[in-house]
Amino acid sequence: MGNVNAVILGTGRAYPEGVITNADLETMVDTSDEWITTRTGIKQRHRAADNEYTSLFAVRAARQAIERARIEASDIDLLICATVTPDQILPATGCLIQAELGAHRAAAFDLVAACSGFLYGLTLANQMIRSSQSRYALVIGAEILTRYVDYTDRGTCVIFGDGAGAAVLGGTTSERGILSARIRSDGRYAEQLFSPGGGTRLQPTAETLSGGMHFFKMRGNELFKVAVRSMIEVSTEVLTEAGYKPEDIKLFVPHQANQRITDAVADKLGVDSSKVYSNIAMHGNTSSASIPIALDECVESGMLQEGDLVLMASFGGGATWGAVLTRW
Ligand code: ACO
User: Looking at residue 43, what is its pLDDT?
Assistant: First the structure.
């Protein structure tokens, strides 16, 4: 093929049935529905049961994406699972998903970029397809964040939820597909959102577990400002590179971190609020899963039509951030 673009051919999503409402959280920590709603926009978040695990939802989302892309699992030659909450340390959750799907031809691996994981995955898949290294790529964002949430820490437990979203990409020589993609990181922000225990630096012991060292620790307030600034910068870069202005966008699908972050980014970018997709009220922050879940909801509700210009942007622990501009 000549100039090949990578286009999203199908999307899918899945999440646990269990939910934690703001009223539930009021009984667990010193918080209120009013505080959570006005400071984050969140009303409820899904929470996996003890016998549910990340790949379970990843596989469900992936099956739907594969079906909607009208391909077979065996057609996939690249499988990227973006997650910070893998089933286990070894092997990669991507390999477990591959086996379950029967995607035996795929190179499968995990990608750790927190909330930016899905856009990191899209960016890599885009390049693999453009360079003809890959024909069909499956990019998944899947998280069971509630396993790492400290339900005595009101600053983190109100925002995180569980779920998975997936997208199948293939090549096209049409005008559609990914027009511009940028990913960035800055490890100097590592300790603004991190899980100190459980790895080789602070290996899991009875003490680290009882001390809650495996739970996420977050300086949310400091991250907030960096998130807004970084998402605006990288979104402007992809728009400029592709030769578009914010007003050209049909739909802005940001990572669902906090409604106030979304509103600030859209406002400063100059994207009208009617073009901004938000589902944070129902899902909370599902990290790498939030953008693919949102995309699938947009497709299902008819908000996304072929030819629409879609901007996605994210910011997450690391810190990592990125933006992808695509013609649907
Ligand atoms: N209920 C009631 N009060 C609360 C709660 C709560 N759940 N949480 C914090 N507070 C209090 C604080 O103790 C503080 O009280 P004080 O003034 O008496 O000290 C006050 O509210 C303000 O606290 P802030 O931390 O400044 O609150 P903020 O408005 O920043 O909201 C939040 C906190 C929701 C975490 C916000 O900072 C945020 O969303 N940050 C960004 C998170 C993010 O983007 N993370 C990266 C992506 S996630 C990933 O990568 C997995």
Answer: 98
**164 and 273 assigned to the same domain:** no
135 with 202, same domain: the answer is: no
pLDDT tens profile 287-324: 999 999 999 999 999 999 999 999 999 999 999 999 99
Q: Which amino acid is at 202?
A: L
Same domain, residue pair 166 and 215: no
CA 64 to chain centre: 17
Q: Name the residue range of residue 91's domain.
A: 5-173
| Residue 190, number of CB atoms within 10 A of its CB | 12
By percentage, how much of the chain surpasses pLDDT 90? 99
Ligand 1: distance of its center to the CA of 221 in Å? 6
Q: Residue whose CA is closest, atom 11 of ligand 1?
A: 155
pTM over 0.85: yes
- Report the residue among 25, 148, 224 best suited for mutation to probe ligand 1: largest number of ligand atoms under 8 A from its CB: 224
Q: With contact defined as beta carbons under 8 Å apart, do 130 and 6 qualify?
A: yes
C-beta 227 within 6 A of ligand 1: yes
94-111 pLDDT, tens digit per residue, is: 999 999 999 999 999 999
194 lines ligand 1 (CB under 6 A): no
Determine the distance separating the centroid of ligand 1 and the alpha carbon of 276, expressed in angstroms: 23
Boundary of a domain, candidates 156, 173, 190: 173
Of 46, 258, 285, 298, catalytic: 285
For residue 255, indicate whether it is catalytic: yes
- pLDDT single digits (tens) 37-90: 999 999 999 999 999 999 999 999 999 999 999 999 999 999 999 999 999 999
Ligand 1 atom showing the smallest separation from residue 143 Cα? 51
Closest C-alpha to ligand 1, atom 8: 155
Q: pLDDT digit string (tens) for 158-192?
A: 999 999 999 999 999 999 999 999 999 999 999 99
Q: Is the shortest distance between the CB of 31 and ligand 1 below 6 Å?
A: yes
Same domain for 198 and 151? no
Total domains, the chain: 2
Checking if the pLDDT of 145 tops 80, the result is yes
Structure tokens at 62: 């992936």
Question: Domain check: are 24 and 166 in the same one?
Answer: yes
Calculate the CA 252 to chain-centre distance: 14
My answer on whether 159 and 234 are in the same domain is no
Contact 5/178 with Cβ under 8 angstroms? yes
Q: 3-state DSSP helix/strand/coil percent for the chain, to nearest 5? A: 40, 25, 35
Q: Which atom of ligand 1 is nearest to the CA of 319?
A: 50
